[in-house]
Design brief:
The complex is a heterodimer of chains A (465) and B (640).
Chain A: E1 8-11, E2 21-26, H1 30-37, E3 38-40, H2 43-47, E4 53-61, E5 64-74, E6 85-90, H3 93-106, E7 110-111, H4 116-123, H5 132-153, H6 156-181, H7 192-221, E8 223-229, H8 235-246, E9 252-253, E10 261-267, E11 270-276, H9 286-301, E12 304-310, H10 311-316, H11 321-329, E13 334-339, E14 362-365, H12 374-386, H13 401-422, H14 427-445, H15 449-460
Helix pairs in contact in A: 4-5, 6-7, 6-14, 6-15, 7-13, 13-14
Chain B: E1 9-13, E2 16-19, H1 23-34, E3 39-43, E4 57-59, H2 63-73, H3 77-83, E5 85-91, E6 101-106, H4 108-120, E7 125-129, E8 132-138, E9 141-147, E10 151-154, E11 157-160, E12 169-172, E13 175-178, H5 189-196, E14 201-208, E15 211-213, E16 223-225, E17 254-258, H6 261-269, H7 275-278, H8 292-298, E18 306-311, E19 318-322, H9 330-338, E20 348-350, E21 353-360, E22 377-379, H10 389-407, H11 421-431, H12 456-467, H13 472-494, E23 496-497, H14 502-511, E24 520-521, H15 522-526, H16 533-539, H17 548-559, H18 561-579, H19 596-605, H20 610-615, H21 621-639
Parallel strand pairs in B: 1-10, 2-3, 2-11, 3-7, 11-22
Antiparallel strand pairs in B: 4-6, 5-6, 8-9, 9-10, 12-13, 12-21, 14-21, 15-19, 15-20, 16-17, 17-18, 18-19, 23-24
Helix pairs in contact in B: 1-10, 2-10, 2-12, 6-9, 13-17, 14-16
Classes of the chains: A alpha/beta (465), B alpha+beta (640).
Chain lengths: 465, 640
């Protein structure tokens, strides 16, 4: 269990699909954490002391807008846990809920252990003694389920990768510790250069795992797919066509304060998080300019960009500067959909626009109206996701937020160790971060640190003067 | 055991009786006596107190730290080791401030003699040679000890420090006999008596290498291993060596050589006669101290293993052959020794052997080293399943202090894991499952950077003073040192150097360090990795007046303040859970929500705090949650 002084955060609703997800935050720091992440639409109402009120506003993770949310304010001691509690209602599905949790963590909250809210509720007198047993049963059941889930979530491939990374860290630490505790043994203590090399390799493994967990995010949260193009090129029609085509809308949130529209759709077996953006063009209108700026931001964040071009422009080579910029700048992730091929002069419909191709840009002749090119698009997205361009592996990877954050902390600790190593810090200091890395990654595998470390020292090195 | 039952007689009433005069027993007896307790020390042989049946050295990583801590608390091991030092070396000097550790090669006979001198000089201490046969227990409390010859030493506090002497079984090849280490007798009655009282004992094994005659060795084939060029010692108050005084040049040498393929062939050819592999040895041996036969089998690819020859004494002809611990038959031992370059004609003075012995499963201990379920009965040292002289001495000191405190009606002294290796040792013993004889390692200390040998005094001398074992002289010297340290640190923070300072420019250029545009304090400069002790003394020459260790310690504090701060934060978090006390009368079997395994372990260990409960092997976070719920239930029921 976390320290009672720590503020805990977790999803309060069942994970998975569902229209609304509630993130619960409880503890002494809850108010400060929410203040750091949440901009209420009506600050004057928000500032009022009264509790048990709902507030609309924007939740931010640093500079990034996570989502528009409804925050419920339940001050101590009348809340569920007896502490200051905030419940953040997210309407954007799991991806948004997870972003909200991440934002809270970055602001100082820690992930709640299974059953911890209930435990706190009981400890703060929110439940009577009769319920104590139920609290225990609940905690045990959740802990066991979480452990079971954690293992189940780690399918063969990823589990092997986590273990391999852990083994690499363990070997480094065993080498350092063997040299320290048995200084005169024939332990071939690792020379600093070799140590640094091994540290970098372990770090790269952790980076891959972490990147993999981003690939996992694609699976979970959808491929962030931006539909871009100049005004009236058919972006909305494409969006609507995709939605009609698949009829697998996860959720929808019409933008109220933004010009972006977010939709979820499954295409080719891949969850697309579609972001329709404001049309790209030079504009003097301040409101429109703001929208276009957001479009560029969205392009930066995107996993894939569907750039809609008018076939007639493409044919004549009359692409707008903005269109060329997108092609050049996002070449790696752009799929150019040359739309409105139906409007080309007869006989030119099959024209394949090869001269458009920038390196890395996939070009698909397209017609929303004639439903042309959809299959090719689905195929292309599928290949990108499964084919390694977006994710190294098609399997769901580090599935839970807990695992991801453990990998993230492993990586951070290894980076610190590497930095200390580069700065010629002594081994006993470097070992502090390597041990921290080992402890973090061991949280995923559930293995004991000290026993394994000693075992490794004694099997790897011939000790015994 | 006795064939006839002797008639018991009253051998006196004491506050504390210590059974065994090894490293644990001597510290325990001296501590209790010095704390004003009428103390009796019983030993099999008054001529062999504080014997070193294994390696002739004290210290090394974690162990050396422990010796400094014993010293800081007011124990004697550091002084005796320094006084009988043949050679001293600082190990791990290149690996950082936390893990540097001193090791002293000691003269075994002199060590025993010096300890005996201290024992004999202690006014409150009565010495007695005899074999303790049973402890007297009545009404859940210890009453005293009775010897084989019927002497009854009555005492409300008894400390058992039986070492490896309980039901000892010595094994050399096919020869197996009941006996203690180094040809001593073994104690059969006490182990049975403890079992009869319901304590649980198990069996461990350890071993030792053959001793060779110094004059039969051809040292031209060996590499010299000298001591350090500077004078080094464990004790805070310097104690000159009987053998080299304060002149490091007069230290004795150790020697390094190697086994070879021939040696390994001899071993492989005779594994059929190796007790380790024929099933004769039943006890579990330590992984960190394998026999040469074990090393040859497990690391078959290695063509050579190190052998260190270490003098056992200044005048003695014995050489300890570290690295070739063995229980092979004597003729094979002779053959394998002769296969080593420079040992072709070596004479085996004392063949190596393995020894199995009973030990008390240490989870029956409370953190003050008393045995749960029998008030006033303590156990310390190898009898608790540990290995090493230093681990034994530290436990002896702890048990001695706690027995004395109990005699004086004071609460137990339980050092924390953040206060010293002595705390790590006791806490591990009480909470962890022992799979082999326990040896302290720096890797076992989670707050290693805080537990440096250079601050053992700062950590523990104030505790030793509270306890009453720190002398006036030492306290004054310690207080003066702490004042110097405080002043030095303050000065480094305050004193600023201007970028125009020529000396600063020269020193920084020499160190390859950039000139700070706005100037910098000495502390700021020291935080740069490239600024070393040399650089700072070049900048502030008067620093050279300070003892080198004090300067190094202060530099460590400044340079690694970030890391130290992180560990201190972790300690603060840990201490919070340590402060959540668990009542003595917890009925773990009846606490709902605890897993079966946790129930058993917690009932056995009976942790004193929630923090300790979390460290018990087999206890999960869900179990801790269940304990929290239970505590809250108790609180509310009590307030009804």
């Amino acid at each position: 269990m976390n320290d009672e002084d720590q503020t805990i955060v977790a999803l309060a609703t069942p994970a998975g699909e569902g229209a609304i997800h509630i993130v619960r935050l409880s503890g002494k720091e809850a108010a400060r954490i929410v203040a750091a992440c949440f901009s209420p639409l009506h600050p004057e109402r928000w500032e009022k002391k009264e509790g048990f009120t709902l507030h609309l506003g924007m939740f931010r993770d640093g500079d990034l807008e996570a989502d528009q949310v409804l925050v419920g304010k339940m001050p101590a001691p009348a809340s569920y846990t007896g502490e200051d509690v905030y419940e953040i209602n997210c309407h954007g599905g799991m991806p948004v809920a997870q972003r909200v949790i991440t934002a809270c963590r970055r602001a100082g909250a820690v992930l709640a252990e299974p059953g911890e809210f209930t435990l706190r509720a009981f400890l703060h007198g929110k439940m009577d003694l009769v319920q104590a047993e139920a609290v225990n049963d609940l905690i045990r059941a959740r802990t066991e389920m979480a452990a079971g889930l954690a293992l189940a979530q780690l399918n063969g491939g990823i589990s092997a990768e986590v273990r391999e990374t852990r083994q690499k860290i363990l070997d480094i630490l065993a080498g350092i510790e063997a040299g320290i505790d048995f200084p005169e043994e024939e332990t071939d203590p690792l020379a600093r250069t070799e140590l640094l090399q091994r540290l970098i390799i372990a770090k790269e493994h952790a980076q891959d795992l972490f990147a993999g967990s981003r690939a996992g995010r694609v699976i979970r949260e959808g491929l962030a797919t931006v539909i871009a193009g100049k005004p009236n090129v058919g972006k909305s029609s494409l969006l609507n066509a995709l939605l009609r085509e698949e009829r697998a809308i996860v959720t929808d949130i019409p933008g109220t304060t933004r010009d972006e529209i977010h939709e979820y759709v499954v295409a080719g077996g891949i969850l697309l998080h579609l972001i329709d953006t404001a049309g790209l063009r030079a504009s003097d209108d301040p409101v429109e300019k703001l929208g276009i700026e957001r479009t560029w931001k969205a392009l930066n964040m995107a996993d894939a960009v569907l750039l809609l071009l008018d076939a007639r422009d493409a044919r004549s080579g009359a692409l707008a500067a903005e269109e060329r910029a997108v092609l050049a700048e996002y070449a790696g992730k752009v799929i150019a959909l040359v739309n409105k091929t139906d409007l080309l002069p007869p006989g030119l419909e099959e024209w394949a626009v090869p001269e458009l191709a920038e390196p890395g840009v996939c070009v698909i002749p397209f017609s929303v109206k004639q439903r042309r090119g959809f299959e090719e698009l689905a195929q292309e997205l599928k290949e990108r996701v499964w084919g390694g361009e977006i994710s190294a592996s098609g399997e769901p990877r580090l599935a839970s937020l807990r695992q991801q954050s453990a990998v993230e902390r492993t990586l951070l600790a290894l980076e610190k160790a590497e930095e200390a190593m580069q700065a010629s810090a002594p081994l006993d200091l470097i070992s502090i971060d390597i041990r921290a890395a080992l402890e973090e990654i061991s949280q995923i595998t559930g293995d004991a640190v000290e026993d394994d470390l000693l075992e490794r020292i004694f099997t790897q090195f011939c000790i015994g003067k | 055991m006795n064939i006839n039952k002797p008639i018991e007689y009253d051998a006196g009433h004491y506050d504390v009786v210590v059974v065994g005069a090894g490293h644990a027993g001597c510290e325990a007896a001296l501590a209790a006596a010095r704390l004003g307790c009428r103390t009796a020390l019983l030993t099999l042989s008054l001529d062999r107190v504080a014997a070193m049946p294994c390696n002739p050295s004290v210290g090394g990583p974690a162990k050396g730290h422990l010796v400094r801590e014993i010293d800081a608390l007011g124990g004697v091991m550091a002084q005796v080791a320094d006084r009988t030092s043949l050679q001293a070396r600082m190990l791990n000097t290149g690996k950082g401030p936390a893990v540097q550790a001193l090791r002293v090669q000691a003269d075994k006979a002199a060590y025993s003699r010096e300890m005996r001198r201290l024992l004999f000089a202690e006014p409150n201490l009565r010495l007695y040679q005899g074999m303790a046969e049973r402890v007297d227990i009545a009404g859940g409390a210890v009453r005293g000890v009775v010897t084989r010859t019927g002497a009854r030493f009555a005492a409300p506090n008894v400390i058992l420090t039986g070492g490896t002497y309980l039901r000892g079984r010595v094994i050399v090849g096919e020869a197996v006999y009941a006996g203690g280490p180094s040809g001593e007798q073994t104690s059969l009655g006490l182990a049975e008596n403890l079992r009869a009282w319901g304590f649980r004992l198990s069996r461990f094994k350890t071993g030792t290498p053959p001793r060779l005659a110094r004059r039969s060795v051809d040292f031209s084939r060996w590499i010299r291993q000298p001591g350090d060029a500077e004078r080094r010692g464990f004790s805070f108050l310097p104690v000159p060596s009987l053998f080299w005084g304060g002149d490091p040049a007069r230290q004795e040498l150790c020697w390094l050589g190697y086994t070879n393929e021939r040696t390994h062939e001899i071993i492989r050819a005779n594994l059929g006669r190796a007790p380790l592999y024929t099933g004769v040895v039943e006890g579990i041996g330590p992984r960190y101290c394998p026999s040469i036969e074990d090393k040859v089998v497990r690391f078959a690819e290695r063509t050579a293993h190190q052998v260190f020859l270490e003098p056992e004494g200044h005048e003695s002809d014995d050489l300890y052959a570290a690295g070739i611990s063995t229980s092979l038959p004597e003729e094979i031992q002779t053959e394998l020794v002769h296969s080593i370059a420079g040992l072709e004609r070596a004479v085996l003075l004392k063949p190596g052997y393995a020894i199995e012995y009973d030990y008390i499963l240490p989870r029956q201990l409370a953190p003050d080293l008393s045995l749960k379920g029998c008030a006033g009965l303590f156990a310390a040292g190898q009898i608790n399943g540990t290995s090493g002289y230093e681990e034994a001495a530290a436990q002896g000191l702890l048990a001695g202090v706690n027995a004395a405190r109990r005699a004086r009606g004071e609460g137990p002294f339980v050092p924390g894991r953040d206060e010293g290796y002595i705390g790590v040792l006791a806490d591990d013993l009480v909470n962890k499952e022992l799979l082999e004889p326990y040896r302290l390692l720096t890797a076992r200390a989670e707050y290693r950077l805080l537990l440096r040998q250079d601050n053992a005094d700062a950590r523990l001398t104030p505790r030793g003073r509270e306890i009453g074992l720190v002398t006036e002289e030492r306290w004054r010297a310690f207080s003066a040192k702490m004042e110097r340290r405080g002043a030095l640190l303050a000065r480094w923070e305050q004193e600023r150097f201007s970028p125009k300072d020529e000396k600063l420019g020269a020193v920084l250029a020499e160190a390859g360090s950039a000139l700070p545009a706005g100037g910098a304090s000495a502390a700021e400069l020291l935080r740069r990795p490239e600024i070393t002790a040399e650089a700072i003394t070049a900048l502030m020459p008067e620093m050279r007046e300070l003892p080198a260790e004090e300067l190094d310690e202060a530099i460590t504090l400044v340079k690694y303040a970030g890391y130290i701060g992180r560990q201190e934060l972790a300690v603060a978090r840990m201490q919070k859970t340590e402060r959540r006390a668990l009542p003595e009368d917890m009925e773990y079997a009846r606490i709902s929500g605890l897993a079966h395994e946790a129930r058993q372990r917690l009932a056995e260990v009976r942790p004193r705090s929630l923090g300790q409960a979390a460290r018990v092997s087999g206890v999960t976070p869900a179990d801790i949650a269940a304990l929290l719920v239970h505590l809250e239930q108790r609180r509310r029921t009590a307030s009804l």
